Structure formats: structure tokens, C-alpha cells
Amino acid sequence: MQKPQSFPRRKFLKHVAATTLALGVGPLSSLAGNEELETQVLQYNRKFSSNDMVNIAVIGMGIMGNHNAVSSLQVPGVKLIAACDLYSGRRERAKELYGKDIFVTNDYRKILQRKEVDAVVIATSDQWHARITKDALKAGKHVYCEKPMVHYIGEGLDVIKTQKETGKVLQIGSQYVSNIVFQKAHELYKSGAIGNLNMVNAVYDRQDALGAWEYTMPTDASPKTVDWDRYIEGMKKIPYDPKKFFWWRNYREFGTGVAGDLFVHLLSGTHVITDSIGPEKIYASGQLCYWKDGRNVPDLMAGIMQYPERPQHSPFQLTLQVNFVSGTGGSETTRFVGNEGTIDIRGNSLTVHHSKLPEAPGIGGWDALETYPEEMQKELLKRYNEKYSKEQQKRHNEPDMTYRAPEGFDSSLQHHINFFDSIRNGKPVVEDGVFGFRAAAPALACNQSYFKNKIIHWDAEQMKLKEA
């Protein structure tokens, strides 16, 4: 296995070149200026001195922490120098993967005390996100925090306030925001390709135990290898439970369920395409239908959200679906429905389908016309054909258009590139705290709706819950 610290620059530049080509060619080239793209290629097509390096630490070395480390280390000029995890086996694995010289600890505050750390990646269980993010920003570190940005809605505004006060870079980790396919969809939607939006249907289904968060347990899991007291710090004392540590997404005390893990992706994608700031009414229903392993969150959830008319978009409804025992085998799709067509996103491709109503209202077929006397039918048809030309009676359709992300494009890598570009150049992040919170809060409101069996009202502008 290739050491993650030594990813070749050639592979990275292939990704950047593919992105540049995809964004700079064809009718959608306005997505990005060629000058900016060329600057990005030139910036990374050089050697970095030790003074130019961005030294990072990863806090939480589980699945996402390692994934983020790998993506970060593919960006030239980035070095992993420290890692934190509460399980000793992951600290040992960090040294195996990233070098014996990296600093490892079970206390994230020791990382924040190290002056040589420029930025931290936070990939802990959800209940630690806001706390560590604020501590890291106050310690002068740039922060990449996994989604959802917060565990509870009430934590969001304080995180945003802390970022503004410190001036440090804060990027939230929902890769849909940097996905070139979603950027293409944004351009198409804004160009009027599907007319006025009225409905979005978003699905993120799975059908396997790992997808349902039943991850492989280590053989040595115990209170000796897991710092349980630090894990539950600030919470009511509860006895050690390996499931609540290694399968934390299954428990409300530590995670945010399917809404916080996957609804937030679907919301991020919807917002990046429509430029929306969020819904005003939220309702969710669900059930625990298959993975009855002690979890206290549903394995199937459906949500519906009402988006009011705003300068950025017409009013529309958003439906969200996650099913962890889907007979489809699993799918990841988002459909944007307008009055003149649809944009369907599936994985790394999208298809635009056009269907525009004819100017004439139609007559005959599944119509009351044939229930009238024959002479009246003839008269109605005559009047109709006199009023509307053949052209006006036609439904004007166009061939479907399909776009696929270029070979070698990696949305996770692109999201990390955007983060490090913000650190190096001071350019705005693609998913700041405000965007991240406006995606997280409606997702977390789905949990409130499900557990309280009520409609949740949300003020997207002020980013606060409202009373009905």
C-alpha cells in the first residue's frame, strides 16, 4: 500500500486538469473563469518549501478521519503532523499509515496547543463537532469540520460567531458542494433549463450492514483501550458500551441518525444548485424496520420541506428519503422538477429532460369532449382549430442532455483543495459555517419532527427555530 504522505503530484494535477477542462469547455463555461483555474494549476504545479507547507492534524481517526487525511495529503504542500483518537488502536494505526514521527494523542487540546499545527480536520462523533470547532478557532487554527456542523440546532449560531470573531477559515465537509456535477446542475438551473422549479425529490438509500453503520469491531475494544470518560465528557455518566463508541451514528446521544448523516448531503446539494437559504416548514416520519441492533434512531426516514418563494428561486417542495434496507440495492439520486423539464442527478452524472406545455390547452383524448352530442363536438373542434395553429398545439420537446464528471474527478479531493486554497489565498470557502448550518439545521429539525411528531417551523434568514 502506498503511504498516504507520498501521493504523487502527477495524480493530483490530473484531477485539476480534468476539472479545468470540464469547467472551461462548452456552453456552461461560465461556471469558472479560466484565469482562476489556470492560477490553481500553476499554484500546485510547483514545489513547496517547508515555510509554505500547511501542517494539519486530524481529530478523530475513524473512517471519515482517515478518508479526509488521504484527500488532504493528495493536495501538494499539505503535511499531516498530528492525529487524535480516543481508541489506542487507531493511534497506533495512524503511525503505521502516516509515519512514526507524527504526534498522536487522546486529548485534542494537546493538538491545539501545538503552534506548528496550522489547521485541524474534525471527524469525531457528532456531539463533539461544535465544541472542538470553537476551541480550535479560538486557538488560531483553521478548521475543516465534518458534517453535520453541529449536534444540536442551538449550537449553530455560536460556531458562526466564533468563526467571525477569530477570522480563521472554517469549511464544513459536505462534498456535494464541490462536486462538478452539482456545479453544472446549478448553471443549468440558473439558465432556465427546466423553467420554474416546483419540486425536488432526493434519495440516499442503502442495503447492507456497513451502510447501516454496523462497522467491524476491533478485537481489543475495552475500557483499557477506549478513553470512555473523555468520550462522554460533559454528558450524564453512562457505562462503557463499545457499540456507542464504534457505532456511534446509531445513538442520538452521540450522532444525528440518517438525517444528520445523509439528509444533510441532500440538503447541501439542493442549496448549492438553487442558491436557497432553506425551508420554512419541516416534517419527517420514519421507522426502525430492520436493523434492530439496539440503536435508538430510525433506519428509514422520509422528510418533506416547504421552501417559500425567494429572490433565488420559485416556491418548491423538497422530499427526502433514506432507506437502509432498500430492495433497490441502494441508490443516490436527486431530481429537480420544473414546469418545463427535469434535472436528474445520479452519482457522477446528470441528465436534463425537456418537456414544455403546448400553448394550446388541448382537446379530445381523456377529455369530456366525447360525452357531448356529435354536432357540438364538431363545433368545439372547429373553434379550437381556428383559435390555435398546428404549431401552438404541439408539445415542444428537445433531446435529453447528459453530462458526466470527467474521469479522475474526485469531489472529496476537490472539497479539500477548496479548503486549502482558502487558507493559502484568503478566498471565500465554498461551504462556510452559514451554509453548513443552513444545511444541518433543517436535517436536525427532521429528527425533532420525528421524535416529537410535529411540524417544525424554521426561520432560514435568522437561522432560528420559530413557534407555529
From TrEMBL:
Family matches, as InterPro entries: Gfo/Idh/MocA-like_OxRdtase_C, Gfo/Idh/MocA-like_OxRdtase_N, Gfo/Idh/MocA_oxidrdct_glycsds, NAD(P)-bd_dom_sf, TAT_signal, TAT_signal_bac_arc
Sequence ranges assigned to domain Gfo/Idh/MocA-like oxidoreductase N-terminal in this UniProt record: 54-173
SUPFAM superfamilies in the record: Glyceraldehyde-3-phosphate dehydrogenase-like, C-terminal domain (SSF55347), NAD(P)-binding Rossmann-fold domains (SSF51735)
The entry's keywords: Signal
Signal peptide: 1-32
Gene3D superfamilies membership: Dihydrodipicolinate Reductase, domain 2 (3.30.360.10), NAD(P)-binding Rossmann-like Domain (3.40.50.720)
GO MF entry, a single one: nucleotide binding
Keyword Signal tagged: yes
Pfam families on file: GFO_IDH_MocA (PF01408), GFO_IDH_MocA_C (PF02894)
Gfo/Idh/MocA-like oxidoreductase C-terminal domain: residues covered: 236-453
Recorded superkingdom: Bacteria
Protein name: Gfo/Idh/MocA family oxidoreductase
Species per Swiss-Prot/TrEMBL record: Hanamia caeni
Lineage: Bacteria, Pseudomonadati, Bacteroidota, Chitinophagia, Chitinophagales
